[in-house]
Amino acid sequence: MPATAVLRQQSRVLALAAVALPLAVAVVDDVRVRRHLNAARRDPLTGLTGRDTLTARIEQLARAHRDLLHVLVADADGLKAVNDTLGHAAGDSLIAAVGHRLGTWAQTRGGLAVRLGGDEFGAAVLLPPAASLREVTALHALLAQPVDHDRRILRDADGQVLHPAVSIGTARAVDLPDAADASRLLRGADMAMYRVKTRAKPLGYVANRHDAYTPTVHGRRPGRPGTHLPVA
């Protein structure tokens, strides 16, 4: 090959390398940025992500496994009493324990759990519809296990062991119209949780179409503080 041709080929290789290297660095930097953003989005108390992550996961699972998709909303009851009587550090221990247990449970079922805020959590998991009651009952028992706080089991003012009381509501994608998106599934699970929490329905109650399409007031379901509306 003539020397000039070799030089031209080397020049092209160097030019391609000059373009490819910044692109490769950009890809690496993008991955790093995403990891940092994901880490920043994680709740420091529980290590869980938030609502946006759950919404995206629900949409993803709905496309691939709609017949198995279950969305749960769980609410830790009595947190204010724990904070008032035992201190906020004890309340934080309770929230952290519930979040960790729910996160592990969801992960082993092909899903994801997040902290929606305060003492409320959400999860999307894959389960056979016939297994809903059994799985939710087992989850309820798991979340109710005693909580360690500073290497001690949490006890109330009378020395009784504290078992987290958690209300759980479920919505199954298969029970709702195909057009029902993540927001409808979450609303259905939230309504189901509220019905269980107020003992209008038993543990294991699964949301129906009416629950999922319950109107909201400023984005909040009836029954939540500030809406001033009863639950239909």
Kindly summarize this structure in a few lines.
The chain is of the alpha+beta class and 232 residues long.
Highlighted features:
232 residues; alpha+beta; Alpha-Beta Plaits; 2 domains; four-stranded antiparallel β-sheet; two-stranded antiparallel sheet; globular
Shape: globular
* Rounded mean pLDDT score: 81
- How far apart lie the N and C ends? 85 Å
The class by helix and strand makeup works out as alpha+beta
CATH fold-level name of the largest domain? Alpha-Beta Plaits
Beta-strand content bin: 5-15%
CATH class of the largest domain: Alpha Beta
CATH architecture of the largest domain, by name, is 2-Layer Sandwich
What is the total number of structural domains? 2
Largest sheet: 4 strands, antiparallel
In DSSP terms, counting alpha (H) and pi (I) runs of 4 or more, how many helices?
A: 7
Radius of gyration, in Å, reads 24 Å
The CATH homologous superfamily of the largest domain is called: Reverse transcriptase/Diguanylate cyclase domain
